[in-house]
Amino acid sequence: MKLAGLQWWKWLCIILLTYTAWQGFMIEVPRMAILHETIRNLFFHVTMWFSMILLMIASIVYGIRYLRTNLIENDIKASACIHSGIFLGVLGLLTGSLWAKYTWGAWWVNDAKLNGAAAAMLVYSAYLILRSSIDDEHKRARLAAVYSIFAFTLMLAFIMILPRMTDSLHPGNGGNPGFSNYDLDSKMRTVFYPAVIGWALLGAWISELEVRIRIIARQREQQ
Amino acid sequence: MAIVLTLAKKEFLLEWRQRSVTGGLLLYVISTVFICYLSIKKVVDLPTWNALFWIIQTFIAMNSIARSFLQESKGRMLYYYTIVDAESMILSKMVYGVSLMVVLSIIHLSIYSLLMGNPVQDFTMFGVAALLGSIGFSAVITMVSAIASKASGNIGLVSILGFPVLIPILMSTIRFSKCAMDGLGWVVAQKFAWLLIGLNLLVVALAYLLFPYLWRE
Predict the structure, then answer these.
(1) What is the rounded distance in angstroms from the CA atom of residue B147 to the CA atom of residue B143?
(2) What are phi and psi of A111, to 5 degrees?
(3) What does the pLDDT look like over B34-83, one tens digit per residue?
(4) Is the pTM of this model over 0.80?
(5) A151 to chain B, minimum CA–CA distance in Å?
(6) Scanning every residue of chain B, which has its alpha carbon at the shortest distance from the alpha carbon of A124?
(7) Which of A49, B87, B90, B195 could be joined to B211 by an S-S link, Cβ 3.0–4.6 Å?
(8) For residue A6, what are the β-bridge partners?
(9) Which residues pair with A7 in a beta bridge?
(10) What letter would DSSP give residue B73?
């Protein structure tokens, strides 16, 4: 379904992100010691990482689809999801680092959750190197799919479990209260959930553009 | 199962016939520990002792298991393809990798303790940590070696692809063996043991499911 040349979910993305950007800075947030206004990072940092995880899962799904069908389109989709996942992951790292500077006093601390994030970025980089080292299209697609399913499944398990088992400075882990404890009147949720959907849709939009460009480029090459 | 054992036996036989390679690995273990010993003498700090042990362990695993698939020539792989199925192939390589890694860990631990001292309080638990860690390391590197052998056959690619994937297992093993060093008891340590067992099962299961797709050319 298209509205004025754009698909409906792209309009939804624009509306949700405009809402996030406006409300994220304008709504009343709980006044907390140390955190103060940095609590607003919940609407940006946390939601970007959520979307990155969603894109990671999407790339695993397209990887499995490629292995089952051998259609190169699935590989293009998987790698496009990974590219936009890296984009959101880097944004998540930057916003997180900025937040850490003002609440913990350092750009980076040695912490289970942060190290998990860094490890995820390393796997992303290794994936890119693997792709660039193979010339044959189908071979590249197959090996990249196998590696991404193997590495990202392990990484997801790691990111989900380890921070819950060890002490962590990060909110929501190791005895530290998560933001849900501060958000007594559920006001922050009214921005948080739309923001998650908004960023995820933006990731999907960027991936979709890359997929379309690469499919056209591939068709031209074949002609 | 019989095929897996036969294939694993073949790996051991090959290893035995190329004794110079095995000897090279031993020398690698000894000289790495010796270099660490020369560089930092005695480690007083417990976390550093533990971390250094596992860093050396990672590099030993990388050097010994990376050959797993890379040493097979294209012709030989084609021959295997005609006579065995993919699942037996990957399982046999893992059985072989895990055994090699366990032997190397024991040698590594004894030389390391001899030179650097051994402050471990709970030996059984440290042994379990070393065993579970070795299984995880060799399973991950065997799988990555299979991917790299299909990509370019370059041993450098194994470490590029392998290290990020090793991080989850490495981090959990380090925490687990730290509990053993401090003698904290199983009440504290068992969650790390379960996490490691879970990760190992996940790695083996993924390798078992994914290897058939690498196998067919």
Answers:
(1) 6
(2) -145, 145
(3) 998 888 877 778 888 889 999 999 999 998 888 888 887 888 888 888 88
(4) yes
(5) 6
(6) B164
(7) B90
(8) A3
(9) A2
(10) -
